[in-house]
């Protein structure tokens, strides 16, 4: 694990963003861990996630984009703090880059419309969100990007749970990667969380997470 990944997991744990216990997910699965990015609301932990997004994006060999799009709501502050970090890390490349986001409800006064921020028209767009579950947020974002004349360039996420979908052997991330033929990068994965758990949790909790991982682990999507 890179330093920024280890630091982000540690801070997520300390800020109760990453918690361990018994949770029932939207899919009905009983998960021994939960990741609630709604709690990225403290200054230090928000700065850490921004740094990790920016580093993950800079380290990705296959991400070329002109604007960042943060899907409402949770993607909005995450995209905003990430563009700031990118501009700090590489002012020549990112200093003038913009970000944009959507409104969940269309506004019919003032500047109107459903998107706010930089124009997507003719631009390669990086979608930045926290997680992907059923892929709904990404597909809705795609519809907006298409309607505004942008081109999807890739997706950046915080966590890849590496789980298979309910009715398939592969993950939703693999499905979306294939459907749109774009790179998808996550700052951390379930494997990283397991590694963290091994240094910090009691044996029985580690076993629960490892059992969950083997039960639901996604297989690669056949070409
Ligand atoms: O792949 P999906 O099934 O769409 O799940 C992932 C999306 O769900 C969550 O947002 P949510 O839709 O709950 O909206 P919010 O950001 O307003 O909380 C999350 O922030 C992602 O955007």
Give the tags.
six-stranded mixed β-sheet; 24% strand; two-stranded antiparallel sheet; alpha/beta; 223 residues; Phosphoribosyltransferase-like protein; binds 1-O-pyrophosphono-5-O-phosphono-alpha-D-ribofuranose
Task: Please provide a written account of the structure.
This protein is an alpha/beta fold. The protein contains 8 helices and 8 strands, in the order H-E-E-H-E-H-H-E-E-E-H-E-H-E-H-H. It has helices spanning 3-14, 43-59, 75-89, 91-94, 136-147, 172-180, 190-200, 203-216, and strands at 18-24, 30-35, 67-70, 98-107, 113-117, 124-128, 151-160, 184-189. Helix 1 packs antiparallel against helix 2 and helix 7 (190-200) runs antiparallel to helix 8 (203-216). It is globular, with a radius of gyration of 18 Å. The protein starts with a helix and ends in a 7-residue tail after the last helix. The chain binds 1-O-pyrophosphono-5-O-phosphono-alpha-D-ribofuranose. 1-O-pyrophosphono-5-O-phosphono-alpha-D-ribofuranose binds at residues 71-75, 129-137.
